[in-house]
Amino acid sequence: MLNRFSMLRSMDFFSLLCCRKLSDGKEPGARKSSTWRVFSLKELHSATNNFNYDNKLGEGGFGSVYWGQLWDGSQIAVKRLKVWSNKAEMQFAVEVEVLGRVRHKNLLSLRGYCAEGQERLIVYDYMPNLSLQSHLHGHHSAEYLLDWDRRMSIAIGSAEGIAYLHHHATPHVIHRDIKASNVLLDSDFQARVADFGFAKLIPEGVTHVTTRVKGTLGYLAPEYAMFGKASESCDVYSFGILLLELASGRKPIEKLSPTVKRSITEWALPLVQGKRFKEIADPNLNGNFVEAELERMVLVALVCSHGTPDKRPTMHEVVDLLKGKAYEKLASLENDDIFKPDLIRNNREFAAIDGSSNGICVQGDAKGDMKQEAVVNLTG
Ligand SMILES: Nc1ncnc2c1ncn2[C@@H]1O[C@H](COP(=O)(O)OP(=O)(O)OP(=O)(O)O)[C@@H](O)[C@H]1O
Ligand SMILES: [Mg+2]
């Protein structure tokens, strides 16, 4: 693996990207590499009207995202680093490196980047329907644009994007920040998984890496939050939370009182155990959903967010399950212990993570030798 810090110091992003190994376009949904390029700061200033406030699409941990238009009329989204630091620089490099390696219809495409002085900017295709988060809980939630068919296709599309990262990209990629604000929606409401700043490349034959915990509260797999053990199945866990969110319109963590919080799995599991699937459906759907598909989505969501990593399906299996192709597997999942009453506690996220207040930051030795830093936020 590349030593990222030395790589970062040299800051030769051009040669870094030239070394990338692109997909050969044979995997399902994979695309031939399209062209990316280096942008000048001047060009991005002009495209975004000098990063005008009116052009701002949103803000995240890395910085602000602006809408822009290039001289050829094409629309772009520009993510501009807020404050320069080694950590931010690392995030920038990882995002550019990973996005430069992957091409898939359900992954956000990289248009290019700009690294001038302390300015770090990443240029993407503009996604006119913004993020899943904005439709479920944000600005667009009152417009009810997510009917059931769209939700199903977003679920399958984002699963295919992640499956590509896990099973087809070379080396394999763990995303580590799967959540509703990182699933963007194109003009046809097709899902594009975005934000690779926390991604890890996994060399062939390696099952997991031990790492600092990064991600968003409510989406973190317990073994990752507690022991920093990152593997593909951590993304599967986060995807399970995302699926429950998509089906129900609820947030991953709900505040029941100033001190008590409930995770979406704790809320959904008793309903599934009582076979009360319809009560899980987002009230904004007004009862307009396909019952069998809702049931499937919820069951898959809950096995994905199983407390025991080995019990979670792979993303390939998730795609087949969501498409209704794995009938027998689904039937066997329904008989899993987690769907029997009284076992709710086994599938909970650990209280240390769940029970915290804002912007949890766990530091120290989680297990003797392991330093843990939970860089998580509660905005998701
Ligand atoms: N390519 C894009 N097209 C359209 N809107 C985008 C694009 N990229 C980002 N956005 C918008 O900008 C917002 C901020 O994105 P950003 O990834 O910086 O933060 P976030 O996902 O909310 O949080 P985090 O920093 O934890 O990922 C997104 O929620 C989305 O609405
Ligand atoms: Mg994001």
TrEMBL record:
Pfam family name, one: PK_Tyr_Ser-Thr
Alphabetical UniProt keywords: ATP-binding, Kinase, Nucleotide-binding, Serine/threonine-protein kinase, Transferase
UniProt keyword annotation of Nucleotide-binding present: yes
Residues that coordinate or bind ATP: 79
Protein kinase domain location: 51-330
Keyword ATP-binding (UniProt): yes
GO molecular function: ATP binding; protein serine/threonine kinase activity
Highest taxon above the source species: Eukaryota
Family as reported in the entry's similarity comment: Belongs to the protein kinase superfamily.
Name of this chain's protein: Protein kinase domain-containing protein
Originating species: Vanilla planifolia
